[in-house]
Amino acid sequence: MSELDIPRSTFYKWYAYYLDNGYDGLIDQLGGEKTPAVGFASGIERIILNLKRQNMAVPATAAPRFFVACLGETAALAAFKLTAELRRASIF
């Protein structure tokens, strides 16, 4: 549980709910609307560690050229528009 940063009691509550209902209903259990769901999770760090343990090549990734940060709703909208323009221009 410590790796997930979730209290043990919370995890077991969700897990018990999952055993009874599957993934469906977990969203509304957390306060959202009732939503049909399917689940999958994978940590990229663990995948990379396992690739290295098996002496498999880990693909290199390029460092990001830009980092767009914002504070507040007005700035978030401007940041969204900026990143959309950068992607359209194949810059980002």
Automatic annotation (TrEMBL):
The keyword Ligase applies. This is Histidine-tRNA ligase. Gene3D superfamilies: Bira Bifunctional Protein, Domain 2. GO terms for molecular function: ligase activity. InterPro entries: aa-tRNA-synth_II/BPL/LPL. It comes from the Bacteria. Keywords: Ligase.
